[in-house]
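Subgroup meeting minutes
Present: P.N., E.W., G.H.
Scribe: E.W.

1. P.N. recapped why we're keeping a running log of single-chain structure predictions: easier to compare across weeks, and new members can see raw inputs and outputs side by side.
2. G.H. added today's entry (439 aa).
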Amino acid sequence: MFRAIGRIFRTPDLRRKIGFTLGIVAIFRLGSFIPAPFVDFPNVQACLAGNAGTSGLYELVNLFSGGALLKLSIFALGIMPYITASIITQLLRVVIPHFDTLYKEGQAGQARLTQYTRYLTIALGILQSTTLITVARSGALFGSGGATECSQLLTDDSWYAILLMVITMTAGTGLIMWLGELITERGIGNGMSLLIFTSIAATFPTTMWSIATQYSFELFLVFVAIAILIMGAVVFVEQSQRRIPVQYAKRMVGRRTYGGNNTYIPIKVNMAGVVPVIFASSLLYLPALVAQFSQASNGKNPGWVDWINTYLVRGDHPLYMALYFLLIVGFTYFYVAITFNPEEVADNMKKYGGFIPGIRAGRPTAEYLDYVLTRVTLPGALYLGLVALVPLIAFAVIGASQNSPIGGTSILIIVGVGLETVKQIDSQLQQRHYEGLLR
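Output recorded in log:
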């Protein structure tokens, strides 16, 4: 391993890309500690030090922002607006034919879709920053466990102060989006994924130290064992795929023969990645968000508000777990269906003379691909649901957060991004006639 690392740093171009990526990551982490204008930073620090915690509504966003959300920093929204905008843009391909046409136009169409995603990211940044500042202004950001300081997080709540805070946080979202694109273009790996990786990994030391000090050493070892088991399962499943053999017929063009080679279509067990988990978490947060803004000041809430607070806010309730699992399974099938089109793959194979041995080209090939995809996706969907539920159940025993950095969602992202980044570094080494990092 040390020899491979030495080869990386002996390659000038690769060394420059890694250095550039680390520099952007450092800027990203620095922005997570700079408070937004008119934020009473000492009060925020007092609330965080007092372990007031949130009501469960902003835990996922806080995790993806590396803790910047609860600090009300200029990067408080983190990468979540861009993630949401990207998912919405992909979903619009199914609803709006124009988006699907742009997707099929190649590089020019992809550039237009990227531009739409940027506009939508800014719009979501404005919406989410306004919501966050409204909640912080009302004193409900840290839930019911906060002291007097937690209800006085802003030094000025006039309209121009609120407007400046919204502009600052939205600009921070745009800057994060630009930094991620810079990493993708000039650095190593996918920029947005690496920023999420950095945000989650940044909270690891604090969380591990908190578990070690608040609970027994035996329980700490149980946490570590669960994390290692989940990590092993994630690596195994993420590398698993069903390879469908494909043959190409020989063609004579002039005096040359083309085709005749054999290849395969790799269908991963988990083609959806962590997107279904984010979908399910976001959808389950919507009722909690509505209930939070519908609570009565005198404590006499409507019956439906109490029902939501009892069953859909607490992650340790069986109904919440069942809904969470079913939503993950459903969203996995839905997301795979819009990202992998068997008919389009079959048409492309037929156009270039490819066929699956024993399967006729055209519609029978599409039906076969759909048959395989449906059955391969089932274990992938169950795996995602179980990985998300196992830490939720384990952490509920001692009251820890389901979105802890050693939770299922976090490990899925960290392992997935880590594997992809290592593969990119290995391909860069192989292009420069080295034996590679993975060998």
